[in-house]
């Protein structure tokens, strides 16, 4: 059965889900919603449908797998992870997943808020000033492990790849994105199914955010 992933026609909060669908070779269709043209950026292509899909909490991204209908990007990731043995197994691994998931979401949302702020240029220097410490913390957390929970690839690695890749695009000269974090990114990109996806016409590198974003 083909599952359905609904989201805007941007990378946004759905990229880690796309990567996991590709890695697990899950047959899927994307329902991409488009904003209208400037200056109004009419969202009605989505809002006209959102209450008709049977979602408990209508939002994007959404995920439909037969009778299962989910929203919230990390809930979707966790569902796919449980189906495909991409979860931590020991208590320590589960703790690392829980902590890292929320840490990564904080980092993600900081960039989202910055890039959608009308004061983007004013706020950007402060963001770049605090970024190295955040990345140093992630680097220490990863340590010499191949993946963030240890020897096993789990759903938080898909999330970590997407968040770190966005930071790499935003601050390409940041030295903290070298070393073990760079090796992690390379290791993830070298996964056979991920590599094939990135070479395909389905892969979306940009746009990351809506057209109204300042970056």
TrEMBL record:
One Pfam family, short name: GST_C
Reactions this protein catalyses: RX + glutathione = an S-substituted glutathione + a halide anion + H(+)
Domain GST N-terminal: 1-88
Subcellular location: Cytoplasm
GO cellular-component term (any): cytoplasm
Keywords for this protein: Cytoplasm, Transferase
MF (Gene Ontology): glutathione transferase activity; identical protein binding
InterPro entries membership: Glutathione-S-Trfase_C-like (IPR010987), Glutathione-S-Trfase_C_sf (IPR036282), Glutathione_S-Trfase (IPR040079), Glutathione_S-Trfase_N (IPR004045), GST_C (IPR004046), GST_mu (IPR003081), GST_superfamily (IPR050213), Thioredoxin-like_sf (IPR036249)
EC code: 2.5.1.18
Keyword Protease: no
Positions of the GST C-terminal domain: 90-208
Transmembrane feature ranges: none
Presence of keyword Cytoplasm: yes
Single biological process term from Gene Ontology: glutathione metabolic process
Family membership noted in the UniProt record: Belongs to the GST superfamily. Mu family.
The name this protein goes by in its record: Glutathione S-transferase
Gene: Gstm2
């Amino acid at each position: 059965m083909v599952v359905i992933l609904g989201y805007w026609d941007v990378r946004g909060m759905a990229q880690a889900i796309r990567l996991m669908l590709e890695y697990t070779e899950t047959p899927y269709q994307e329902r991409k919603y488009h904003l209208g043209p400037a200056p109004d950026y009419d969202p009605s292509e989505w809002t006209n449908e959102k209450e008709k899909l049977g979602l408990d909490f209508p939002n994007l991204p959404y995920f439909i797998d037969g009778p299962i209908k989910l929203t919230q990007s990390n809930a979707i990731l966790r569902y796919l992870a449980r189906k495909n043995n991409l979860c931590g197994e020991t208590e320590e691994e589960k703790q690392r997943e829980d902590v890292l998931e929320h840490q990564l979401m904080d980092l993600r949302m900081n960039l989202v808020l910055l890039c959608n702020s009308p004061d983007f240029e004013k706020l950007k220097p402060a963001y770049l000033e605090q970024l190295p410490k955040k990345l140093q913390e992630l680097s220490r957390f990863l340590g010499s492990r191949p993946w963030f929970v240890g020897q096993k690839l789990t759903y938080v690695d898909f999330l970590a790849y997407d968040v770190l890749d966005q930071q790499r695009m935003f601050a390409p000269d940041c030295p903290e994105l070298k070393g073990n974090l760079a090796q992690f990114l390379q290791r993830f990109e070298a996964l056979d199914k991920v590599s094939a996806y990135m070479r395909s016409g389905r892969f979306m590198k940009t746009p990351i955010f809506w057209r109204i974003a300042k970056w």
